[in-house]
User: Fold these one by one.
Assistant:
Number 1:
Amino acid sequence: MQKLSFFLLIVIFISSCTERGRLERRENRIEGTWYFDRAFYKGDHAIFRENLIEDYRGDQVTFYDDGYAEYYDASLDAYFSGDWFLTLDKTQYHDGNERIYTLDMEFLDYIHRERFNFYSNATKIGFNNLNLEVYDDYGFYTFKLNKLD
């Protein structure tokens, strides 16, 4: 019995070190309701970044374990439903390996009858903090979200 317990412990340890295990742990951290704490935009040739928190103040994103998500827009007092996907890209540079987590969110805006998306790099996925970078054609947004529950 002791050998079986030791074998199961080894199997669990090895499986938790795999790429899929890393991704699942990050997905579990993301589940829950998050609010926007900071929001910035920096253009490609800009020296300073622009503070956009007033545009996102009171907004919340709720991630469910089945890939479903809800975005609450406080300025419109409206909820938008959608999906979220977390992926892990492993790249190799001349100085070593790097893991890049991408968090993609797609929501349906039923008011304007269009979709809006966040295709982001998750630079930090903590238990209470989530940092995202969203790039567009002219620069990038930086968001810091904190967990509500």
Note: The CA atoms of residues 29 and 127 lie 5 Å apart.
Number 2:
Amino acid sequence: MSETTHAKARSLDQGTPPERFARGWHCLGLADSFRDGKPHGIEAFGGKVVVWEDSKGEINVLDGYCRHMGGDLTQGEVKGDEIACPFHDWRWGGDGKCKQIPYARRVPLRARTQRYPVQIRNGQVLIWHDVEGSEPDLDILPPVLPGVAEGEYTDWSWEVVPITDSHCRELIDNVVDMAHFYYVHFSFPTSFRNVFEGTEATQYMESKGRPDKSGGYGSAELFLKSEATYYGPAYMINWLDVDYKGFETEVILINCHIPTGPDSFTLQYGITVKKPEGIDDDTAQYIAKKYAQMFGEGFLQDVHIWKNKVPVQNPLLCEEDGPVYQLRRWYEQFYVDKADVVPEMVDRFEFEVDTTRANEFWQEEVAENLRRKADEDGESHSSGDSTETPQMMSGT
């Protein structure tokens, strides 16, 4: 028999989820959503955290459970600058120290709980997480977005989507996945390049929508120029130049997540649009909301895939699949002790996918789909039926 006949089938290694959560900055949501004088509970890192604003306007974040008898602080009250446990009224300050026990003469010296360092960036609450307990690294915070705080952009349109049965690495893998934009999001990536360096991973892409599909990014009249950078393990800024029917819009998409368990996370995404000249604020906000719906639909397309796939530690790749293993090596730096970060995790790496062959095949496939649809529409019209082609969501 030939050697091919005896070739073994490739095994599929599903692996096991990491035993720790990533080191770095994680976004909890819009700062204004926590400024109501109440405690807020956010599932995170296998448990929950409590978030509240004190009298000085500072946002504080602690572990969600009281160190006294395990009361749920997210169900307590904000009293003065402290969060009060609903069980026995122990009062915890934003520095993690118990400030007062109303029924006791003194507070135990070791009455401390876990606090999370907080930074407000671009109107969002970011917290530092590290199982080693390191001081927060302010140098790797996401950048301030010029013009956002100055009112040049619309208010954030912000959405929260819980994801189960998937590790957040599934989301990160999309950074290098050129082909899924065609099959999942209904667009042609006409150029696609990656750069990884330090704690940042960037995807540069230009694409146009598929004329044979609606939903997602499917529209022959939609053109995107995208630069998307992960700043650390969990916070991505995506700058988008969008051209839809000649209407050009500058969009900023925030794509961030916080792990909730070994195979679950909460996806959050926000959209803000640069206000076009000559358009009033209400119309600009309407445009932003429509783009949020469009990109949100794209995320839901990914979610459907994640819920039905299995994790693969040893993916079988072709050249056009991009640098999956290199991206995962970059991502690994956030899951090991700082002392164990090695140069190959952080050294600069660049890769550009040749999209020529892919687009040749895809153009032929789309042309055949359109021809078949035209034939079907002709038959429908001849029988008196009429089917309206759904329009892509847009602000125009």
Note: Residues 385-396 have pLDDT under 50 and may be disordered.
